[in-house]
Amino acid sequence: MDRFFRDIELRVSAQRFPGWDRFLAEAPEYSIGLEVIDDTPGHRGHYVHFDHHAGVIREATMSAAMQAYIAVRQGRLMERWLKRVRPVPVYVWNADQDVCLACFILEYHELLEQKGEPVLRQVVQFNNKIDVCGGLYPVDLDEIVSNHFTWIFEPYMRQRTLGKTRGDDALIKNTIRGVCDRLLDLLEGKAGIAPITAQPEVLYASPCNYIIADEKGDPNSRLVLAARGYTNFISLVATRPNGRYTYSVIRGSPYDDDVFEVPKLIEAFQAAEDLPDVKLWGGSNMAAGSDSELGSSLHWTRLRDIAEPIVREAYLRSLARPAPLPKKIA
Predict the structure, then answer these.
(1) How far apart, in whole angstroms, are the C-alpha atoms of residue 294 and residue 123?
(2) Which of 72, 118, 173, 255 is deepest in the core (most CB within 10 A)?
(3) In the predicted model, is pLDDT for residue 200 greater than 90?
(4) Whole-angstrom Cα distance, residue 47 to residue 44?
(5) Rounded CA gap, 79 and 106, in Å?
(6) More confident residue, 167 or 96
(7) Contacts of 118 (CB under 8 A, 6+ apart)
(8) Residues 6 or more apart from 192 whose CB is under 8 A from it?
(9) Quick one: pLDDT at residue 136?
């Protein structure tokens, strides 16, 4: 199959659109956004936004790639829109695993419209579980290597290590193209193997059941941490060349008695930043983080000092709840 884009035109936005109104005003009709609007996912007229970050219940919302998969497979989105415009503008801001996979689905839509490629379906389903859980879905590490998942997304690791910067359009497009090429190799039976070599460092283990970890620039670190049984954590994704930091805040389960309250944490982190009037922290109820481009000014020890009393209060509150009385048997 063609190793370049015919049916979609990648457009790297300089910044995320602040809301649907801006996207509708600036993007042409029949445009698709992939995690590029700070607003809810969905479609409005001939505009679509595939996302699972803002304005959603994270654990109940499909990943962007799965949303695109359903739209193409069941809704025939690309088949319909390509009759009106070719190529279809696709707006992105970065090139994470979910975005790369969604781009492949949109470009190679015919694979799904015709019969639904089972190998691709497996990758989409696996990505959906991992992405919805912020990378903390418990997996068998040997399985994720043997099914080529880590190999497919190797090109993404470079951008993630570098962080988001202005003028990185070529890097983002090349990353997406690189992942798409590997997905084609997979479908053609030529996929490789990429062992998991991540060695994340636990910087702090709280008695209130969360950790602060350094991913060492490897996105597979979260899979390793999940395999070790960790659920809630603040993750140092990268230290930027200018001395600022990129963080993620992940809650492993919504059924933990609200001990690790992500919205409260990011609100407190935002209030402590050196640019209080600039939104540097955001996300959903289960996964959030610092701005990928501007980063955070806070050292991880500062995050620890802010987070610990917040989590401890919730932790002690959960312990103080009385156990339910046994039901009477009539």
Answers:
(1) 32
(2) 72
(3) yes
(4) 5
(5) 10
(6) 96
(7) none
(8) 148, 151, 182, 185
(9) 80
SS3 80: helix
Q: Give the residues across from 250 on adjacent strands.
A: 233, 287
Give first-to-last CA distance, the chain, whole Å: 69
Residues in the chain: 330
- Which amino acid appears at position 237 of this protein? V
CA 165, distance to chain mean position in Å, is 18
pLDDT tier, 272 (very low <50, low <70, confident <90, very high otherwise): very high
Domains and CATH numbers, the chain: 8-187 (no CATH), 201-320 (3.10.310)
Question: What is the number of alpha carbons within 13 Å of residue 290 lying toward its C-beta?
Answer: 31
| Alpha carbons 98 and 176: distance in angstroms, whole number | 10
The tokens describing 270, both together, are 């935002």
Neighbours of 199 (CB within 10 A): 12
Predicted confidence at residue 218, as pLDDT, reads 86
Strand partners, 100: none
Distance CA(2)–CA(264), nearest Å, equals: 47
60 Cβ contact list (under 8 Å, min separation 6)? none
Report the distance separating Cα 250 and Cα 231, nearest Å.
8
